[in-house]
Write a structure and sequence with these properties.
The structure is a homodimer. Chain A has two domains: 83 residues, Orthogonal Bundle (Arc Repressor Mutant, subunit A); 57 residues, Ferric-uptake regulator, C-terminal dimerisarion domain (Dna Ligase, domain 1). In chain A, 44% of the residues lie in helices and 22% in strands. In chain A, 25% of the residues are buried. Chains A and B meet through helix 5 and strand 6 of A and helix 5 and strand 6 of B. Strand 6 of chain A pairs antiparallel with strand 6 of chain B. Bound molecules: manganese (II) ion (2 copies) and zinc ion (ZN) (2 copies). One zinc ion binds next to helix 6 of chain B. One manganese (II) ion binds next to strand 6 of chain B. Chain A binds a DNA duplex through helix 4.
Chain lengths: 142, 142
DNA sequence: ATGCAAATGCAAATGGTTCGCATTTGTGTT
DNA sequence: AACACAAATGCGAACCATTTGCATTTGCAT
C-alpha cells in the first residue's frame, strides 16, 4: 500500500500535516472512522485543528477516490476508510465494528444471470457480511 | 402480501388514518421513500398531518419490523420501504431509483467458506446491485 | 358513553455536516 | 532566500434531517 505522502503527490494535493495525519490514522485503523473520530484523535497530537477542516479534507479525498465514505447501520454518521483498489467485500463485526476484507467475490457470475432475467444493466454491487469476529465470538461465548 | 389493516392488527397497533396511509403509500411504491416524501404525498389528501408524526410512525413500524429503513448513496436522508419477509436482494436503478427484488441468493454457500477461512461468525449479509433498469437503459441509449 | 393510554400537532431543540469569510500556509517562480 | 498567489485552514454561523417536550386529541377496551 502507498504511503500517505505518495497518495497526496499522486493526486497533486498539497502536503499538509493534517492531510497526512488523516491518511495515517485511516491507514492504521482496522475499522471505519467518523469525521469526529478523526478530529478527536488529531486533537491528541495537534491542539489546533478544526472539525470543518477534517470534513473538507475528507471531502477532497472522497472526490479523488483516496478515501471511501461508508454508511453503516450501527451509526448515523458517515464513516470513512481508505479506499480499496481491488474489488472485494467486507466482514463487519457487529460487536466491535472491526472490518476484515475478503478478496473473493461470489457474485459476478450471478450478475449476468439476473441482468438477463430482469433486463437490468447491472454496473456494480455492494456486498457486506455482518457477524462476530473471532475475538468477539470468543469473548461473548464465555 | 398482507393488507395495511392486517399489518396493524398483527402488531397490536391502533388503526389510525395516518398509519394506514403510510402503509398504503409504501405498498404501492416501486422505490424507497423518505419521511418527507411520505409527508408530502399525505398532505395531498389530508391537510392536517405533521412531519414528526410521520417520523414517529416510521419509527414504530421499523421497531415492529413492518418497515425497513434503508441507507442509499444517492440520498443522505434515511429512506423507507415495506419490510420483506423472505431473504432476497435488490436491483436498484441508479437513474430513476426504481427497486426490483430478486429472490435468489448466490451467497449462502460462500458464507460458510469465509466463515471458516476468516474465523468470523457470519450472521447475515447485505447485497444490492446497482445499474440501469430496462426503461432507463432504453431511454439513455437513445 | 366514559376513561385512559397512545397518537398527534406544533414549535423548539439536536446533531451531523456545510458554508462564508478573514487569515495562514504550501509551493512554484523570481 | 524572498515573493506571489492559489489553496488550505480556523472559527462561527447556517443548514437540514431527525428528535423531543408538551398540550391536545383520538382509538379502543370497558
Ligand atoms: Mn463482488
Ligand atoms: Mn443473500
Ligand atoms: Zn468484533
Ligand atoms: Zn431506472
Amino acid at each position: 500500500m502507498k504511503t500517505p505522502e505518495k497518495m497526496l503527490e499522486l493526486h497533486n494535493l498539497k502536503k499538509t500535516g493534517h492531510r497526512l495525519m488523516i491518511l495515517t490514522i485511516l491507514k492504521e485503523s482496522d475499522r471505519f472512522l467518523s469525521a469526529d473520530d478523526l478530529y478527536m484523535k488529531m486533537k491528541e497530537e495537534d491542539e489546533n485543528i478544526s472539525l470543518s477542516t477534517v470534513y473538507r479534507i475528507l471531502e477532497t479525498f472522497v472526490l479523488k477516490s483516496i478515501v471511501s465514505a461508508v454508511n453503516v447501520e450501527f451509526s448515523k454518521k458517515v464513516l470513512y476508510e481508505l479506499a480499496h483498489e481491488a474489488h472485494g467485500h467486507r466482514l463487519i463485526c457487529t460487536n466491535c465494528h472491526k472490518v476484515v476484507y475478503v478478496e473473493d467475490c461470489p457474485v459476478h457470475n450471478f450478475e449476468d444471470a439476473i441482468s438477463e432475467e430482469y433486463d437490468f444493466d447491472i454496473k456494480r454491487h455492494k456486498l457486506d457480511f455482518y457477524g462476530l469476529c473471532s475475538e468477539c465470538k470468543a469473548e461473548l461465548s464465555s
